[in-house]
């Protein structure tokens, strides 16, 4: 039985400082920002349909260290990633004197320069500051734990620190504004038609809580998740997905088609399953199935938040299983490996519920389990799973923030 050791913030910072000193001898970084990943407890493929989601920020995330450069005539930014999962170039430069446009390569760069472009557009600085930034993440890439959003939010936090002395009066970015800016960066630069959940959780996370987010008006409510006898176990199937693949965009389109067929702007406006059933002949079967998931998932998410408020873990677990079945059968984004992980967890006494989390097509499951049943759950999955899984035990954590440098 093996739980993965989580990289601490101090360990991540030390790795980055060492890399900075190696790349730039006789120089020291002066800025450090961190943004967490997230696990979504329930409410999947709901954010871009203006419905409810229920994530919590987790202790793994993305950190950026760097510094402002002194050359007053230069507006060049240097970016470097320490990720071992990147097959493209791990560093590049951007000249801010030129319009910032999406990169053909390296594609990972679009997550940071998209934020840079929109941030500069927002604050309209008198002078664009040159800087160096080295990036590292402890979020499993492609696992459905929001590595991309944590990169974006860490970048925005880094830029806030960079510009705060010169342009404090112009920043005025609320946490919601920041989440929306980072979401737009992913949509326009990385070409992913995502909703705001991931960036919102990374900005707004609070230790000991999950966040019930209403994506219709971007309001939220904190729900305590701090029972010491309860464990949030995340199991990585190690089957990776690519969000920019056509299937994600295709499902977004199916949802839009269903809403339009019913005369609504989005599926949030579909009040009941009965209304959806009445309009079934107006849309394709795939559009109906996707919409059926969204409408019922909205109901499950609100009910799930109430269940956790009342410490009703049996009810929350039942809703988790319903959510997974809906993602498998209606939204059709699960896969054999995720289904197997859920069923193995379901067979263990002490497990309340389990479901796939994230966009799907691989990635992770999230399981609510009694702490004294965690070992048995992991052992059961290790014996029965056809692949090799990794296991993480997460607690909720605070959202994006500056981090003091420990030289």
Describe this structure in words.
- With 407 residues, this protein is α+β, with helices and mostly antiparallel strands.
- The protein has a domain at 9-223 and 396-402: Ribosomal Protein S5, domain 2 (2-Layer Sandwich), CATH 3.30.230.
- Helices cover 40% and strands 21% of the residues.
- The protein has 11 helices and 12 strands.
- The chain has helices spanning 9-23, 109-123, 147-171, 175-188, 197-204, 246-261, 273-278, 285-309, 313-329, 336-346, 374-384, and strands at 31-42, 52-68, 76-81, 91-95, 131-137, 209-214, 219-224, 230-236, 351-357, 364-370, 390-394, 401-402.
- Strands 1, 2, 3, 4, 5, 6, 7 and 12 form an 8-stranded mixed beta sheet that branches.
- Strand 6 (209-214) and strand 7 (219-224) form a beta hairpin.
- The longest helix is centred in the middle third of the chain and has 25 residues, at 147-171.
